[in-house]
Design brief:
The chain is mainly alpha-helical. It contains five helices and three strands, in the order αααβαββα. It has one domain: Dehydroquinase, class II (Rossmann fold). A three-stranded parallel sheet has the order 1-2-3, covered by helices on one side. The N and C termini lie far apart (35 Å). The protein binds 3-dehydroshikimate (DHK).
Length: 138
């Protein structure tokens, strides 16, 4: 989502000092058997397009839509329109912050939401998909 390209630079007391690229690299090293891709855009329509593109052929999507979480009917509808489950992640605890962040339009169409545990939220969402795929194989 928007402004997440500035992780490690923007509002460090809220979003931490790590860049997403560095975090993503450690995640890929920790889970070598999982095929992952990542995409960041500041543009709402590009996020909608990406959801359409990957929403029928991936096992799971982990989405931090940034500020669009609170405003985007288009992203909410895109999540509803695709087959792949979407897990909503926020680095900060959106419920401890300004009132306008307390409402997520996306959550109703997501399998789960993690908010407030920093970048580790992405890993926890990934673990959810790993547990799900193990359940399916049993
Ligand atoms: C990131 C943003 O950019 C904000 O607009 C959201 C979210 C919270 C986060 O915590 O990851 O309100």
């Amino acid at each position: 989502g928007p402004n997440l390209n500035l992780l490690g630079v923007r509002e460090k007391s809220i979003y931490g000092t790590n860049t997403f690229e560095d975090y993503y690299e450690t995640l890929c090293t920790e889970f070598p058997d999982i095929t992952m891709d990542y995409f960041q855009s500041n543009i709402e329509g590009e996020i909608v397009d990406k959801l359409h593109e990957i929403g029928f052929n991936y096992d799971g999507i982990i989405l931090n839509a940034g500020a669009y979480t609170h405003t985007s009917v288009a992203i909410t509808d895109a999540i509803a329109g695709i087959k792949t489950p979407v897990f909503e992640v926020h680095i900060s605890n959106i419920y401890c912050r300004e009132d306008f962040r307390h409402k997520s339009l996306l959550s109703r169409n997501c399998v789960g939401i993690i908010s407030g545990v920093g970048l580790e939220g992405y890993k926890l969402a990934l673990l959810h998909y790993i547990f799900e795929s193990k359940k399916k194989k049993k």
